[in-house]
């Protein structure tokens, strides 16, 4: 293997792939990044056993001869050390693998010999049938994950709840996440045939959002036994799936409400944020919501800091104005922060019934559900 490449291009790609590589693996080669030079470009692969990222740097898009392949081949290098080295080199880089494990690097007047691993020992990519493909807009996919993944469980008591539940059915795409105390879901239109469902670990979903943050095209989804593949023209992200049956969350959503409030999203986030400063005494970061003089009262207090109370304008209200409920302020803030609408709708149905936050319009509806907490 021998090629020349622009330092910035290689450094950026190594950094992106290296995000999933663990330095604590019991298998030394998994702490490395596999570099493959082929006639059409350079491929970098990194994995932590649960996530595999394959990043392609095509010759066709290179400018000013940024990439020249002199000899095809492959090698595996230490992700941390090699990435640091490339980042600190000043200009165009020539990389050559001698006997697959000895890598020579030239950059201007700098010459380096770098010890690698045998590429033949690196794990092979999962075999996934790509004939049944789902196409989804990257922006829709990113927004769906951002508006749900925060609600996944943080402990392993129920493994299925640590992932986001993807469902494709009837030209609809739904993502759901819950930790049993709160729930977030969103529905998008998608062009697909048949029905499929799978549970993606939250770590994989978050990493996917980072990897395609600047991408605005179409993402292909290919599922197989135990794996899911998210693919663009330059990126392939493989993730293990969580096995098990996801709970039927539709039964958790209240069908009735006694009070519905329409509120300004930005003002509400700021008010909750202020109230959370005084909510630390309670295990569940309690804040209290009541209606006073046709305004929403947000309050909290602790013996250590003191208390806070503020009134906010209610844009519109349906139903009973006799409202008092205590809720985890951070859960509420997490949910509202993901919403892009200027105005949001919150439904209440009693002191100990979950509150429901919904879109004020029917386009790409989201839904957040949060269980109240006792204030005594």
Could you characterize the architecture of this molecule?
By secondary structure, this protein is α+β, with helices and mostly antiparallel strands. Helices cover 16% and strands 42% of the residues. The protein has 3 domains: 120 residues, DNA Polymerase III, subunit A, domain 2 (DNA Polymerase III, Chain A, domain 2), CATH 3.10.150.10; 117 residues, DNA Polymerase III, Chain A, domain 2; 118 residues, Roll (DNA Polymerase III, Chain A, domain 2). It has 6 helices and 26 strands. The chain has a 9-stranded antiparallel beta sheet with strand order 14-11-12-13-26-25-24-18-22. An 8-stranded antiparallel beta sheet has the order 6-2-3-4-17-16-15-10. It has a 5-stranded antiparallel beta sheet with strand order 5-1-7-8-9. Strand 12 and strand 13 form a beta hairpin. Helix 1 packs antiparallel against helix 2, helix 3 crosses helix 4 and helix 5 runs antiparallel to helix 6. The longest helix is centred in the N-terminal third of the chain and has 12 residues. The chain is elongated, with a radius of gyration of 25 Å.
SSE topology sketch:
Layout lengths: L1 E4 L1 H12 L13 E7 L2 E7 L3 E8 L8 E5 L1 E6 H10 L4 E6 L3 E6 L2 E6 L18 E4 H9 L16 E7 L2 E7 L3 E8 L6 E6 H10 L6 E7 L2 E5 L3 E6 L18 E6 H12 L9 E7 L2 E8 L3 E8 L2 E4 L4 E5 H9 L5 E6 L6 E4 L7 E5 L6
Antiparallel strand pairs: 1-5, 1-7, 2-3, 2-6, 3-4, 4-17, 7-8, 8-9, 10-15, 11-12, 11-14, 12-13, 13-26, 15-16, 16-17, 18-22, 18-24, 19-20, 19-23, 20-21, 24-25, 25-26
Helix pairs in contact: 1-2, 3-4, 5-6
């Amino acid at each position: 293997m021998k090629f020349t490449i622009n330092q910035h291009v290689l450094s950026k790609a190594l950094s992106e792939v290296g995000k999933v590589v663990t330095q604590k693996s019991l298998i030394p080669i998994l702490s490395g990044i596999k570099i493959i030079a082929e006639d059409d470009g350079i491929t970098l692969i990194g994995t932590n056993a649960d996530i595999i990222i394959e990043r392609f740097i095509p010759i066709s898009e290179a400018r000013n001869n940024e990439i020249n392949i002199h000899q095809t081949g492959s090698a595996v290098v230490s992700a941390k050390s090699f990435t640091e080295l490339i980042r600190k080199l000043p200009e165009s880089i020539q990389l050559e693998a001698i006997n697959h494990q000895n890598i020579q690097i030239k950059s201007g007047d700098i010459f380096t010999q770098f010890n690698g691993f045998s590429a033949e020992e690196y794990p092979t990519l999962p075999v996934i049938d790509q004939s049944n493909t789902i196409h989804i807009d990257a922006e829709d996919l990113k927004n769906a994950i951002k508006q749900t993944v925060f609600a996944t469980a943080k402990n392993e008591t129920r493994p299925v709840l640590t992932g986001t539940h993807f469902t494709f059915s009837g030209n609809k795409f739904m993502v759901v996440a819950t930790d049993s105390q709160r729930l977030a879901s969103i529905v998008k239109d998608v062009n697909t045939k048949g029905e499929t469902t799978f549970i993606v670990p939250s770590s994989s979903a978050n990493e996917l959002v980072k990897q395609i943050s600047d991408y605005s095209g179409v993402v292909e989804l290919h599922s197989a036994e135990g794996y899911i593949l998210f693919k663009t023209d330059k990126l392939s992200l493989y993730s293990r799936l969580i096995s098990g049956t996801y709970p039927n969350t539709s039964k958790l959503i209240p069908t009735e409400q006694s009070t519905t409030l329409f509120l300004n999203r930005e003002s509400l986030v700021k008010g909750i944020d202020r109230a959370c400063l005084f909510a630390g005494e309670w295990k569940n970061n309690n804040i209290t919501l009541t209606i006073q003089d046709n305004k929403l009262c947000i309050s909290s207090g602790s013996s250590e800091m003191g208390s806070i109370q503020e009134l906010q304008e209610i844009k519109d209200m349906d139903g009973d104005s006799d409202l008092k409920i205590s809720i985890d302020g951070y859960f509420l803030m997490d949910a509202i922060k993901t919403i892009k609408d200027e105005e949001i709708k919150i439904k209440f149905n009693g002191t100990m019934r979950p509150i429901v936050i919904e879109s004020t319009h029917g386009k790409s509806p989201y839904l957040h559900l949060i269980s109240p907490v006792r204030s005594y």
